[in-house]
Each structure stands twice: as C-alpha cells, then as structure tokens.
Amino acid sequence: MNPGILAVARAELRAGGRALVVLGLLAGVVGGLLLGATVVGDRTASAYSRLVQDTGLDDARAYLPADLPEVTAGFAGLPGVEESWTAYAWIAQIEGPTLQYTAVVAGPERPDDLVDPVIVAGRAPRVEAADELLVGEPLAAAAGLRVGDRITLRMLTLRQVARFDVGFGTPEGATRRMTVVGIGRMPSWTGPLGDSMSTPAFAAQNAGAAGGRSGFARLAYTGDPVADAQLRDDFVAALAASYVGHPRPLLVGNYVPEVPVFPTTETDPAVAASERVLRLGLWGFALVVALGGTAVLGQGLMRHHLRGGADQRVENALGLTAAERAGARVLAALAGALPAAAVAGGITLAAGLLEPIGSQARFEPEGGFRADWPVVLLGVPAVVLVFLAAAAATAAWAGRGVATLPVLTRHRSVRWAVRWPALFVGLRLALRGRALPGGASGLPTLAAGAGIAVTVAGIVASTMLGASLQRLVDTPARYGFTSDLTIADARDSEMRALAADSRVAALAEVETGRVTLDPSRSRQVDAYAHVAIKGDVPISLVSGTLPTGPGQVALGARVAAREEKGIGDTVDVLSSDGVPARLVVTGVVVPQPERGAPLGEGLLVTPDQLGQLFRQPLASAHLVAEPGQAASVYADIADRLEVHLPGMPPEIDTLAGLLRLPEILALVLAAVAVAGLVHTLVGAVRRHTRDAAVLAVLGATPGQVRAALGVLAGTTVLPGVVGGVLLGLGAGRVLWWQVASETGVAPDVAVPIWPIILIVPAVLAGAAILGALPALRLARTPVARSLHTA
C-alpha cells in the first residue's frame, strides 16, 4: 500500500477519529433500526404461515354425520386425500354459574403432522388419559379457564344436538369430570375442529354418545392454482355424492354445513388485512429511518471531510490522486465501521426478543427469542459497506476543490425601486436553485417539495387510518353489534318473558338458515331475517336500503365485495332444503354474525322470504336493555339461557391490535418531517449565502434580506405541504377502503379535520422560524466573509 495513503489515514484519525467513531455509532443505530424492523416485520408477517406449518393445519375439514357411517368410512378415499384423521365430536355443557357449551373433538391417534395445536401453556393430554382436556385459547379466554382447572362436562346426545333450535331440556349424555392440562393455539378453532380436544382414551370411552364425526384431510396439492382449485372442486363434489341414496342426517344442512371448508386456502380476510397494514407501517417506518438517517449521516460525513478540504489540496500538490485521497479517508473510516457493525448487530439480535406486533402476536408459534441469522449475517456487513461507501463518496466530493471568490466590500444601503423586492427575490432564489461548488447544480424547490409532500402524505394517511380504526373499535354498531345481549336458540316462552320485562328496551328474534350462494360454486353463507318483538334493534346499513318484501336481499359487506354485487344486481341462492330463489340486491349491510360466522358474511332477507326457503330456521334473540340494565338482565337469565355479552369479534380484535401503529408511524414521520425541514431550510439558506451578501452589497437592508430568505423558506415548503395533504387524503381513503372491505365493515373513512387543517399553518410557521434563525446569523456575518466562504 502507498505509504502516503497510510500517512494520510493516520493524520485523519488523529484529527477526526472521535468524529468518525460517533458517525459510525450513528450508522450502526440507523442500520440496526432498519435491520431490526426487517426482523420484526418478517416475524409479524410470517406468524400466521409459521403457525399453519407448525400445527399441521389441515387442507380440508368437514362434518361427517354420526348417523351416516358410510359417509365417514368413505372420507379417507375422497379425491386428492393423502392422509386423514377422522375424529369423534361432542357438544357438552360446561357446568357452572352461567350456561356455556363447548365442542370437544377426540379420536384415534392422528398423524403427527396433522391438526397438532401449539401448546402455549401446560402440556398436551396423555394418550391413555380419558379425563384430560386441551382447550383452545378462545374458549380459555371466554370461560376463564386455566391449566389445572377441573371442569364438569354434561354431554348432549345426537338427538338433543339436532334440537338445539327448539330446546332439548337437560343434557342426557354422560357426565365427565375433566382436568384442563393445556391451552392450545391454532390458526382457527372453528367448525368441525370445535374449541377443545381430548384423547383416544376419551374417544373410546364416549364414542357411542358422539354427536357427530369430524374429518380432517391433507390434500395432494401441486402448487398449481388451477389444478389445486380443481382438486378442491372434485373433493366437494365427491363428498356431496357420498350422501346420495342415504336418508337425510339429523344435523347436516341448516345447523351444520354440508360443504367442507379449506383452512389453508380460505384465510380470514381480516388476517390478510392486518398483515398488509402492519407491513405497510413497518416498511414505512424503515423507509423513514433510512431516508432520515442517510441524510443526517451524509451531512455529518460531508462536514467532516469538508473541514479537510485544504488538506486535500496539499495532498494533491504532493502527488496523491483523487482515488488515493478518498481511499485514505475510507481507511480512516474503519475506526467508525467497527462500532457501526457492533451496534447494528446488537440491535438486530435484540429485535429477536420482540414478539409480532399488533394482533398478529396471537398467531406466533414460538415464544421468546427468535434470532434471524440471515438478516444478521447479511445485513451487518451491508451496514459497514454503506458507511464506508458514504465516507468514500463524501471524501471524493469534498476533494473536488472550492473556487476562490473575490472579496467585496459592503456599500451603504440604498432604497429599492421595486415595491416588493423581498417577495420577488425570495421567489427567484427558491425557483432557480443555486450552483454548488465544482459546477454541480443544487436541488430545485421541486425536489425538496416532493420530499416534504411524501412525508406529509404519510402523516395524513396514518392519521386517517388511526381515526378510522379507533372509530370502528369504539362503535360496535359499525361492525354489526347493535344489541346488548344475544341469546342463542331462543324459544317463544322465553321471548315473551323478556318482552314483558321493563328492563328490556328492544327485542328482536333473528331467524337463520344456511343457503348456498351461487350453487355452481357451492359457497355457503347464512341468511338472516329480523322479526321485531319489542322496540327496534337496529341493523348496520352500509348503503342502499333494507329488504322490505320477498325477492329482495341485502348483502353482507364482505359478500358484496367478494361477489362483486351491487344495488340492483341479482343473486341466486339454494336453501339447505333444496329450495331455489333469485333475489334482487337492495343494499349492503353488516349483520351481526350468528354461530361464529365471519364478520360481514351472510344475507339479510325478510321473514316471509326466509319462511319460503326454510321450514324450521334456527332462532336467536338480540336484546337492547334500558340504560344501565344490561348487567341486571344478564345476571337473571345467564343460569338458564345461553346468553352472550357483546364481545369483540376476532376480525375487529385483529384490527384493534393495530391502533397504536398509525400513531407511532405518524409521530415518526412528524419527527422526520421536522428534521427534513430543518435540513432543507438551513441548507437552502446556506446555499444562498453569497446571494444574500450580493443583495447586501446592492443595498438591501438586513430586514429585506431576512424577508427574502423567509419567502425562500415558505416557497420551498408550501407546495409540498399542500400536495402532501391532498395526496394523503387520497391514500388514506384507499387504504381504509381496502382494510374495511376485506374485514366486512363499512368502508367510509374517518377524516380528522382539525389536525389535517392545522398541518399547513403549523408547517409554514415552523418554516418561518427555521428560516429566520440562519438568516439572523447571516445578517451578523460580515459581507466579505460571506462572499469569501460562499
């Protein structure tokens, strides 16, 4: 190596070693934040898919009627089935102060890679233990169950399960005393899987009293979307064909869906929406940190190397080339590269301690520390290389030489002939930019304004998303929950008693029947009809009107988006009894889901229309209590009726986990906006130091110079702020529309008017202040010095 390079590097370390270490630490923090965001983002975005993999989530599941053993026997031979598990299923009443039920699944030992919940507390039940129970997280939360609890299950017979809608009296099945030994996590605890699992020993002991069978299958997917879709269609058709020629089972149809579900391909849209918003927020954070950190780091390195500009002229005279001068400074920058690597690596590893953010944490299959070694091993060297590359670039730029400008003397002030000189001069300075040393032209106002616009747009869009999320979470009616209490399987005598209760303000019977929407695709949804008994229980209407007669229907918001149906369109439905109907869409609603149906699914029809489709629909009751009376009504009826308080549905709970993200992102963007504004305005004033000095020479007063620089600052930021607000309003509306339509709620966005309106004057005031500070310092600087250093 050239001895001159080593000598220059040593001199650089002696003169600015501390500054390089500080800049290296800054690079490490910025790089570590970027890599840490990547680690957390990957853990967040992959939580659901990793849980699917770790639990061996089945590709297809279906209810198999206990009274048709032929259907059960043929399940493993359906088209595309590679492996399967056929379990028994029971509905059992949990003995306690309130009426509550659980669906228990157990059977012969299952394949190791099929339907294997992740244990988040306790352990899995022992195969030989008939009194051990693994409960799903939703049931544990709803019933307040913990590991070690002893519960009594009073099981229903098949005939009693079939009479859920009309009442069945006291459970007639066996009574079992069970111990909760574990709490399990699955992507979904719904449908044939139930909400708790037991053992082969339990299945052998209670098989004769099972209310049904549950089939789980791994399908021979090829990865080709078309071929895999055809395989699912063949599976559905073959399962339907297995019912032909047999008596109609007690449960399949209105109460239990006949069409199978495909858990690995039918992901809850709310999960996808949450993942999208979280990724957007994390990558927005990473982008902001990258832009802001790069600007600060580049500015610091530039200032560091500009101080050595005179040294580079001497080195040039001594025969060192530009590449050698820059190489010497890169060699010296290694002093900062080592702390950059250490800090970046430490932050990246520490990020492995963070769980997935927001609601995606409930899908994390691995608790605690999770190191992302590929990010560490590839990202840390990348941070070091970027730091060294920035050092090389700024050193080369600083070494290009600065032209010596003539020294001018100050003349006495003269009055300008133009009435508004500061305005026109400031506009001219802002719009034309300025030539930088070495002949390169400076950034025009358009470039600076574009950066400000992007940042302001991010703040506005984040604020709108946060306000819309908050309004949704705080207003249950917006996601269809308009009642104080819901009573499952309500009967006439109970409805009459509730209607006579003075504490009840409104009561409606909600009749439900399962229909197939578009029979060619066998997509099943619930059809609802509201029968007013007392007062008015409102229905969340998104657009259009509610159906008023036979032949009309209001679609759930998610159904309308998925089927691409609007007001005036028609939909074909087929009831579980085989009755077809063509219905005209009159509106879009968010019905309160029954039986754990997804939010925004279902159809709303009139009672007469539902009566034409079903002989005996299921019935529940929605109750609105007088102010302050809901708890009293609940306490009186919870011991004899299956009554539910208005809990937050999983889709809204998923979105509620995002509430803090828009606020954090908006704050980070605001901090970056302030930093960028300071950098832009201070840099703009400094670039025009010579122009200000020339103005003073021509007779401008200090006040006029400050006014011109103030106009320069306002002209730089105003277009970006206004454009950013408009861009943010559009982006926020589109983002919320996508989230709401996928979740199944009303897509109208909440616009926080005053915070958005105040952005423009706040930024302009800040620009005026930030522009005045360097202008004041400039006014106190002798003109000769300004002309010499400009």
Would you write up a description of this structure?
- The protein has about 800 residues and is α+β, with helices and mostly antiparallel strands.
- It folds into four domains: about 200 residues, no CATH class; about 210 residues, no CATH class; about 210 residues, no CATH class; about 160 residues, Beta Barrel (Barwin-like endoglucanases), CATH 2.40.40.
- It contains 23 helices and 19 strands.
- The strands form two sheets. Strands 2-3-8-5-7-6 form a six-stranded mixed beta barrel. Strands 11-12-17-14-16-15 form a six-stranded mixed beta barrel.
- A hairpin with a 4-residue loop joins strand 15 and strand 16.
- Helix 1 runs parallel beside helix 9, helix 1 runs antiparallel to helix 10 and helix 7 packs antiparallel against helix 20.
- The C terminus is likely disordered.
Per-chain topology:
Blueprint: H1 3-55, E1 60-64, H2 69-73, E2 81-94, E3 100-106, E4 118-122, E5 132-136, H3 137-143, E6 150-155, H4 158-162, E7 175-185, E8 196-197, H5 200-206, E9 212-219, H6 225-241, H7 269-306, H8 309-317, H9 322-351, H10 373-398, H11 421-432, H12 445-474, E10 485-487, H13 492-499, E11 504-517, E12 523-534, E13 540-544, E14 552-556, H14 557-563, E15 570-575, E16 580-590, E17 603-604, H15 607-613, E18 618-625, H16 630-637, E19 643-644, H17 650-656, H18 660-687, H19 689-697, H20 702-743, H21 753-757, H22 759-779, H23 783-789
Parallel strand pairs: 3-8, 5-7, 12-17, 14-16
Antiparallel strand pairs: 1-9, 2-3, 2-6, 2-9, 4-7, 5-8, 6-7, 10-18, 10-19, 11-12, 11-15, 11-18, 13-16, 14-17, 15-16
Helix pairs in contact: 1-7, 1-9, 1-10, 7-10, 7-17, 7-18, 7-20, 9-10, 11-20, 12-17, 12-18, 12-20, 18-20, 18-22, 19-23, 20-22
